[in-house]
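I hope you will forgive my troubling you with a question about protein structure. I should value your view on which stretches of the chain appear to form regular backbone elements. Here, with my thanks, is the record as I have it:
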Amino acid sequence: QYFSYQYIAKNLKRKAKNYNSKLKTFSLNTKF
């Protein structure tokens, strides 16, 4: 169970990172 929790946490972090980068590029595009 502990391993699966770590695995899920890793995936969530990765998804959050991708989402944040997408938001950053979007905000940059809207500024110009």
